[in-house]
Design a protein that fits this description.
Layout lengths: L2 H10 L13 H9 L3 H96 L1 H10 L3 H15 L2 H4 L9
Helix pairs in contact: 1-3, 4-5
């Protein structure tokens, strides 16, 4: 016979009034005090108590290791939650620090980007200046080859380039103008 059936059989021998969720002892005490066979009623009460204790002992013995394991697991879960809470707190601090570093780096990156754009513009101007500096040589070569129309076009294009805003302030180009 399995343990569950044995326990159910024992519990069936216990009076129904003893198994209700909200047990009221007063009617039982009054019954024993007013009974003609008090010793018999007290013995019946002790028998019922013995059965209940035996059932409780059996349940505890059967489920003790499971209860114990459940309590240990619960304790471990609480510990892990506590550690996780601490880790999240540290992570928040680290993220705050990372945000500050990234913000500082963002300013540096913006400055470097601006400098890069300025240098690109300067390189473009230097390329234009180099092209303009070669214009007299190209015009002389085209004249020597009797390509006068092409020489005039190169002269007009170079004059337009010299009128651009960035090249007007270059003092060395005044000779070419």
């Amino acid at each position: 016979m399995d343990c569950g059936a044995y326990l159910r059989e024992d519990l069936e021998n216990v009076d129904e009034s003893w198994t209700v969720a909200r047990f009221d002892s007063l009617p039982h005490v009054v019954h024993i005090l007013t009974s003609k066979d008090r010793d018999g009623e007290i013995q019946a009460l002790k028998d019922q108590s013995d059965i209940v204790e035996e059932v409780v002992d059996e349940v505890v013995q059967t489920y003790h290791s499971g209860f114990n394991r459940a309590i240990q697991n619960y304790s471990q879960i609480l510990r892990l939650f506590s550690e996780s809470t601490q880790s999240v707190g540290k992570l928040k601090v680290d993220l705050g620090n990372a945000k500050k570093v990234i913000s500082a780096r963002n300013k540096q990156l913006h400055q470097l980007w601006y400098r890069s754009m300025t240098l690109r513009h300067i390189i473009s101007l230097l390329d234009q200046i180099e092209n303009i500096a070669q214009v007299p040589t190209r015009i002389n070569k085209l004249i020597d080859e009797n390509q006068l129309y092409a020489a005039v076009q190169v002269h007009v294009q170079s004059a337009r380039m010299l009128e651009r805003e960035g090249l007007q302030s270059v003092s060395q180009l005044k000779k070419i103008r």
